[in-house]
Amino acid sequence: MEYVIGIDIGTQSTKALLVDRNGEIVAHHASSYQPDTPKPLWAEQWPSVWFDAVLECIVRCVESAREREIDASAIRAICVSSLYGGSGIPVDNDIRPLHPCLIWMDRRATAQVDWVRERVDLDRLLEITGNGVDSYYGFTKMLWLREHRPDVWANTRYFLPPNAYVIYLLTGEIAVDHSSAGNIGGVYDVARRDWSDTTLDMLGIPATMMPERLVESTDVVGGLLSQWTERLGLSAGTPVVAGGVDAAVATFAAGATRTGQHVAMIGTSMCWGYINSQVDARHGLVSMPHVFNGRRDLYVFGGAITAGASVTWYREQFCQAEIEAARALPHGDPHRLLEDAAATIPAGSEGVMFLPYLMGERSPIWDAKASGAFVGLNLVHTRAHLYRAVLEGVSFALKHNIEAGRRGAQSLDDRLIVVGGAAHSKLWMQIIADITGYPVWTIEQEVEAAMGAALLAAIGAKLVSHDVAQGGWAKLVERARPDAGRHAMYTQRFGVYTDLYPALKPLMHRLQPPS
Questions:
Q1: Which of 177, 209, 244 is the last residue of a domain?
Q2: How many domains does the chain have?
Q3: What three-state secondary structure class fits 273?
Q4: Locate the Carbohydrate kinase FGGY N-terminal domain: which residues (predicted)?
Q5: What is the predicted pLDDT for the residue at 363?
Q6: Which residues on adjacent β-strands are paired with residue 375?
Q7: Are residues 482 and 355 in the same domain?
Q8: Contact by Cβ (8 Å): 191, 272
């Protein structure tokens, strides 16, 4: 039997899977960490944290293989997917990092957004790139570095996405996959599938800072350097496959390979995306080449910055009693106590609504100064009401993106696939079904992007055919069907949700601390 390793570098952890050529999981490992947040709305990471986690995950998977008497030579390829790395990692001529990577969550580049909107032909920028202008996008973060870290800018040879940087360290080869390039926004020509000299000139970013080699997510970038063989236990020359942006890779893992299929990835953030062959940036979503059939298909998505992060924030700040109580229970999980209590609360949380804008918000409102809010509180409400309201608020944000996506989608399937940590929650899956009106399906295995990376590795190593890859390895199971009565109530409440932001926007902006 032949095997591959799929790796996903996430915002808070790196995960790896060792799977056989049929997609059966043989071993897995995860390594946790946290991004640095030195100031409000800042989020960055030194790439050494990611690389150390990748090495640890590979070593543990290879050790597990040995325990099962699997020879390292049977591991035929590695693939690395990663979080959206925002600006990418600025590296010098020796490919040494000069500054932490300003990741997707970072919203510091608000002044640079204003500069672009005032100085650049926006219609042309949107037409070429298929993307808009916001501090979420990597090109605005690059402009922040140009203005605030001129020493870094002066010495930058390339900006490398996280997966590309890790692959460079493993292989000595520099290449950027098309999904990561497109997700930078502003500098990539989505029709030509290449860097855009036109928009780079408009923005004043030297084209030489963009790596010359662009590759498909299924391409082999290079072979594993011999310097890593002893530490990792793998054969020198083991092919390392390009991978891509984790949201698209998780969508691929869920079997989304044709127009109209759509998947919500709900972890720290939420990304809902669908497969399309065209894009219109005016609808406020993000687009990039898909990681499968990327020359033809686009992955178009929108998302909330703080999805699971909103749940974690609420638990850590307000639920110490549940945290303490869970320590005495076999499962040790405070979320189960919170969910049991929230499940007794009627749909709609008896009038409480939550806006999950705890780090500003991405699509479709694109406002770095938006802030979170509970609205509708009164003395009858408990922690359980507010916990349910958080789950409902993130689900409303999901529906908000789906409604924006409908305007540009050629078609959308009649079921919604959900992957990520949220899929562990029976209550949340039912809330999503009731709010969106879609039956909700999830992947039977707890895998997501790492499984997608493993399948990309198998394609790159020619262990699976195109037809097998199109069907995918995921086993999908139905988790929830919408209840007609609750869906009707939530549809009315969704109108309140969408009205709240424009009503509160002026006050949100006035409450922002001075920069």
A1: 244
A2: 2
A3: strand
A4: 3-252
A5: 92
A6: 353
A7: yes
A8: no
